[in-house]
Specification:
There is one protein chain. This protein has one domain. It is built from five helices and no strands.
Length: 138
Amino acid sequence: MADPFCVEGLRPTRTGDEAPALGIELWAVRLFPLRFQLLWLALGAFTVGATPLLCVAYLGVAPEAWFGPILGASVPVVFWSWALALIATWFHPSEGTIGAGSPWFAAQPAWMQRFLRRYAIATVAGFAVSPAIVYLAI
């Protein structure tokens, strides 16, 4: 059985063992047309959430009552929209950085392809759970 995290292992017909690669690639295909909107959403939410924080930190302004809800709403939007944008730009089968159609990625040895795909999946998973970690820290 071929490794699903290796370009050589990607085939049009897949078995149940390769479902994780298929699932993330399906998300990437669906999200690829929205990648720029997701990046703008992440940037906008970061700006809205970070502006009050910067005012408190650098200008010495006392936090207002609206600071908590704005920060609380912007944190998941930033992390989740960034995670979805990474899925779209990294895992798209033909256009993605580590997709099967990437000439750079296909030129890497099989062990490097497995490592990069697994590292990218762990990074995206980290962005997905980061809002919970931030809320626990606050």
